[in-house]
Structure formats: structure tokens, C-alpha cells
Structure prediction request, 566 residues.
Amino acid sequence: MNVASRFRTLPETGESVQFTLDGVPATAPAGVTVAAALVAHTGAWTRQTAQGAPRTAYCMMGVCFDCLVEVDGTPNTQACMTLLGDGMTVRRQTGLRNLNGGHDG
Amino acid sequence: MAEVDLIIIGAGPAGMSTAAVAARGGLQVLMLDEQPQPGGQIYRNVAQNRAKRGFLGQAYAAGVDLVDALDHPGITHVAGATVWRLDKGPQVTWSRGGKSQTTSAAHVLLATGAQERPAPFPGWTLPGVMPAGAAQILMKTAGMLPKDAVLAGSGPLLYLIAAQMIDAGSPPQTLVETQTFTQMLGATPHLPRALFGLPTLLKGLGLIAKIRKAAVPRYTAASGFHATATESGKIQFSFRAKGRAQSLTCGLLLTHQGVIPGTHITRAAGIAHEWNAAQGAFQPQHDLWGETDQPGLHVAGDGAGIGGAEAAAAAGELAALNILCQSGRISSDTRNQRAAHARAALFRARAIRPFLDAAYPPPAEILAPTDETIVCRCEEVSAGAVRQAIGEGAQGHRQIKTSLRCGMGPCQGRMCDATLRGLLSEGRANRPISPPRARSPIKPIALGELAALSFPQEEPA
Ligand SMILES: Cc1cc2nc3c(=O)[nH]c(=O)nc-3n(C[C@H](O)[C@H](O)[C@H](O)COP(=O)(O)OP(=O)(O)OC[C@H]3O[C@@H](n4cnc5c(N)ncnc54)[C@H](O)[C@@H]3O)c2cc1C
Ligand code: FES
Prediction:
């Protein structure tokens, strides 16, 4: 599944950083979040729910947790709250999330 | 002994204006914000965008003054610091770079702002459907412009974002608004008061004029939102308007139904909350100075009730003056005198709210969506399942959570609490519904990070 990005990134000058998404190399401007880089790179899903539904970053402000991906081997990383670093390895994730926080209520 | 005089949580207009006034008054201020830059939601990255992204407009660029004022020896701003727990004392526990620590203060101001109101309808979970404010965050922080986007919903922020997209050279394909003529008519009695906020009113009219001039097709009184994905990944958006079924194909469907206070932190702190009927949201109870029922805990800005950025800055100033007074830095007479200016600003900024609240209410189909709609995005629970649980006797948020896991996922109910309330109040408008409990940690924290700290026992529910 290959869906073009739903955004156009302004051609601004500035440094860029390299990362990979599921092993595929990609580039993004320095200083953006992992979620911004992912959404600029693809219009497709970056996470699948337990029931197999496609999701991608939604709120961009740490509220919805639909942006969870694996970053440098750490699953369930909130992509919209994580700054993209040069050489980061990002992987889409599928199935259940298991956050290490207590959130019963 | 408190380690600092004042901890401010949130570096938006409310927190930044509090910090400036408090520090100039002689207090040592620790300012924590989970974002990499100060500014809050409205002024995201404003200092980084000084000479660029002019399409974000004057009102946005003006926020740079508040950021510049943080450059004061009395203010320590820590970016990337997520507060996840508050204890009596008050004490604030926060995480940064995978490590947590607890800091005590004589006073704590919660200026944590708002979130967009969850706007559920069938298909709102699809990639390609996103809140308009989220797209705006990408415009501000990454220079990313929505392509071939439909803007759908209602409220002043929808017009602002449409105007910013027009000025950026990436206008919305179509504007689909849910507010009706009757709602507009019903809001007119609030117009005389709104005149006290005339500049804001004129700004709003200017935005609408810009949208007209750009010839963006507009629908109003739209209902029955429904989105599906096409084979190529586009969004097929159907709705009813002008008396018949409409359908649009777009790359992005950006929805917006106003903003509501983010109350997880204030509820977890044990502050009493009340239902704001005009705004359809819970908010922490507070007095004119932002003081709450919890000793040492103050609130300001949109997290305390929606008023917008100018109201947030004014409320922050009032909270700072009150804290200066309680810290023995100024007399209550001085506080009251100095407060006159901020009070007037607060009055002007709030004057337009009753009109906006009445003119752009969230539609019933968003508050209590159709059975097939997913309500809880985390645990994938539908409105139908919630209605069934209520039919079988579930009385409140807690029982629905226990029986369906609705609200038990990582977002802790941030995306479904408002909708659960809508479903719970169907057909029993007068029954009071208490706000759901929120518990620490209010943000997910790694177990190792938790284990490194010790806390007093939480009071039983
Ligand atoms: C997505 C979005 C976009 C918006 N865009 C506009 C706009 O363009 N124009 C406009 O007039 N209004 C906008 N608003 C409305 C906005 O609520 C107000 O205008 C204004 O930003 C409110 O100021 P504030 O200081 O109360 O809160 P905010 O500006 O929201 O600032 C709160 C700050 O608290 C921080 N925070 C929250 N929780 C924690 C925590 N647990 N730990 C650490 N830090 C925390 C956040 O990172 C944030 O920086 C927007 C709202 C949203 C949700
Ligand atoms: S996109 Fe919503 S939490 Fe990251």
C-alpha cells in the first residue's frame, strides 16, 4: 500500500535529517517531530489496531495516541511528542499496544 | 521547604504571561512544558518562525513578545518536560528524557490549555481524516501545507485555519460547516455584548471575507458526516446539505468542532470541576484570580474554561498578581490596583464568547454519534455498544469503562470522555453526570521511571 503524502512541504532552506521507515530511507527537515516526518512521507497508515484497522498520527499534540510507532527499537513511542533525530529507525507497528504506564481508571 | 516559589505547567499565553509578571515581581519561577519550544497551541514555534511562514498571520506573530519576555533571570523554562503527577504540598512530578523527578513549590499554576473537541462520525479514524488544529500544528512546526483538503465542522478556528491555508497558497477545496441559520439567529441576542470585543468580531468577519474572496465553495447546516477510503487512499466524504446528499472526494478531511479544556491534570490534582453548559465541557472551579479549592494550586487559560489566547494572557497576569500577594511581595491593595488593566482585558476578550458558543455549538450527531461510529479510538468501542451498556444499566463513565474497556486505552479517555457524556445524557437531560476520575500518571511513564520514585499512597476512589 502506497499513498502519497497528504501534505506539501514548503521548500524552506535549512538542514535536513535522514531516517528510515520500515527500512526505506527518507528525509525530513531538522527540528520536526517523528509524526510530522511520517505524515510528510506517506499518506498511508503507520499503526494497525488490534482489530487490524489502519491508523496514523491524528491530533499531533499528545492526546490521541494514534501515532504510536517503534523508534530505534522502542515500541509504543508517541511520534508526535518525539523530535526526529538523524539516523532514526522508525517501524510501523501492528496489533495491541502495551504501554508501561498505569492507566486504569 | 519549597524548592521554588512558583511552578508553571504550560508555556502557552497563560503560562508565559504569569511567568513574566511573577518573575518581575521577584519570584523564582520554574516553567515546565512538554513541547520542545515555548508558545502553547496558538503560538507554536513562534520564535522559530520570526522571519518566515508569514501566512500564519499577525495575531500569531504577535505571540513572539510573550516568548521573548521569558528571557528573565527569575524564569527557568524547561522544554520537553512532561508533568504526570501532582501531590499535596504542592509537589510536581515531571519526566524529561526518560528520567523523572519531583519538585516542590509554594505555588503551582496549571496553564495546560485545551484540546480539540473529539468529533466522532463513521470514518473519523481513517488515515486522511484529522483535526484541523492538528494540520495547523504541522503548518506551524514543519511548514507542511494540507493538499486538496476539505475543512468540515464549525467554529472560529475553522475560519482562521481556512484563511491561513489561503494565504499559504493551499486553499481548502471546500468548506463544509455544520452550524445552522437558526443557531446564528439564536446567537444574535449575545451580539451587543460581543461589541465590547469589536476588534475580535471584525477579525472574524475579515476571515470570512477572505474565504469568500478566494471563492472557496461553502456549505452550511451540513449533517450526516460519513467518510470512507477510496482504493487510492483518498477520502470520500458524504454529508447532507441544501436538502440533499452530497459527496466530495479529497486528500484530507480536516474536521473541527471547537476546543474544550484538557482536564486530566486538574482532575487528577483533586480540584473540583463543574459543567459549563454554554461550552458543553467540564472545567476546574476557580475564583477570579484562578485560585482553586486545592491549597497552592491555581489555574489560568483555556484549561480553566475556553476564552482564547487574549483571555488566557490576562488570566495569567491576574493569577501572577494574586500569587505575588500571597507570597508577601505586594499588598492586596496593590494587587487590586494592578489588576484593573488585566481585568478590563479579560472582560473584552471574553465578551465575544457567549456569541461564539451559541453560534457554533457542536452538533448533536457529534455529541452522541450513530451506533456504527467508533467512540473509543483506543479500544475500538462503538456508540452502539455504549448505548447497549447504558440500556443494561450502566450509570456513569466508570461502569461503561469497566464493562467495555471504553476509555481504558493509552489516551485515558481524552478522545471519548466527552462522547460518553453525550451518550449518557441522551434522554435524561436533567440528570447530573459527574466528571470521570483521572489518575496519575496522567501521561504514560515507563515502569523503570516509576520505580525510581516513591509516592504517598493515593486516596482510595
Ligand atoms: C490544536 C490547537 C490549535 C489552536 N490554534 C489556535 C490558533 O491558531 N489561534 C487561536 O486563537 N487559538 C488557537 N487555539 C485555542 C487555544 O486553546 C488558545 O488560543 C490558547 O493557545 C490557549 O492558551 P493557554 O495558555 O491556555 O494554553 P496552550 O496555549 O494550549 O498552552 C498549554 C501548554 O501546556 C503544555 N502542557 C499541557 N499539559 C502538559 C503536561 N502534562 N506537562 C507539561 N506541559 C503540558 C502544552 O504543551 C502547551 O504548550 C488552538 C487550540 C488547539 C488545541
Ligand atoms: S498524534 Fe495524537 S498523540 Fe500523537
